[in-house]
Amino acid sequence: MKVSAFNSSPHLEKSATDRILLPFLDGMRTAGAQVELVYIHRLDIKPCLGCLACWLKTPGRCAQQDDMADILPRLADSDITVYATPLYVDGMNATMKNLLDRSVPLLQPWFVVSNDHCRHDRVEGNRAGKVVLVSACGFTEIDNFDPLVAHIEAACRNMRREFAGALLRPYANSLPELAESGVDVDDVYDAAREAGTQLITTGRIGADTLARVSRELIPRDRYIQAVNIHFRQVIRRNRRKV
Ligand SMILES: Cc1cc2nc3c(=O)[nH]c(=O)nc-3n(C[C@H](O)[C@H](O)[C@H](O)COP(=O)(O)O)c2cc1C
């Protein structure tokens, strides 16, 4: 089972997104999957030019020469693709959006009707894999992820892939500090790992496992108070430096 994971956070290996992504991938590896992780913020993935040369001029090949040339074969050849992005203004960040937009060469130009909906078919060699979303956000409520999940679900329908679930972690940046202050966050990481194992061994991720990844760790009022104190301290410290 081939898994291609893409983390689009500019924080790279220090990202909050990685805190959930890494145990998830670890769980898949433990269950026997062959897993590759790419930090796409390090790559040169330019925005789509919208020229459709990849359909109409050089089928399957983009007019731009950048690192997307290495990503396209990975996407085409994956049994499972993991899109891991921080939540930016209620959606995926621009780096991840560029990757999705630039995936269009994996589809054929022709319009077809599927499930009473206008779609494209996959090009030959583009496998009908599964997709998992991993995301981290700053706010406390799980519904902050709703627009992103809806977007990825719709993109899966367009890309002809099966949406297999989302690992969503509110106030993910604070997991280390919460652990230091005695809050039990280990179960969040354990659940992410179990989600990976479940996906490889059973083909699906249990709803209760996903709920554990997202679960409340501290009452909202207490969390907001702590964040605002932290921000005030950092701003004061930075002011002293200038
Ligand atoms: C430009 C920008 C926009 C953001 N928008 C949101 C948002 O709409 N909702 C939210 O809960 N958090 C938002 N955040 C917070 C990030 O999602 C949060 O800090 C996340 O944990 C960062 O993950 P990373 O370390 O993996 O990049 C935003 C952060 C930035 C920099």
SSE layout and pairing:
Elements: E1 2-7, H1 16-30, E2 34-39, H2 53-56, H3 68-76, E3 80-86, H4 94-101, E4 112-114, E5 117-119, E6 130-136, H5 146-159, E7 162-169, H6 175-180, H7 186-202, H8 207-214, H9 220-241
Parallel strand pairs: 1-2, 1-3, 3-6, 6-7
Antiparallel strand pairs: 4-5
The chain binds flavin mononucleotide.
Describe this structure in words.
The chain has about 240 residues and is of the alpha/beta class. It contains 9 helices and 7 strands, in the order βαβααβαβββαβαααα. Helix 1 packs across helix 7 and helix 7 runs antiparallel to helix 8. The chain is globular, with a radius of gyration of 19 Å. The chain binds flavin mononucleotide. Flavin mononucleotide binds near residues 15 and 137.
Query: Major sheet: size, sense and barrel closure?
Result: 5 strands, parallel
What's the number of extended β-strand segments? Answer: 7
| Helix percentage range | 40-55%
Report the portion of residues in β strands: 15-25%
| Molecules bound to protein | flavin mononucleotide
Structural class: alpha/beta
How many angstroms separate the termini? 53 Å
- Apparent shape: globular
As laid out across the biggest beta sheet, the strand order is 2-1-3-6-7
Low-confidence stretches: none
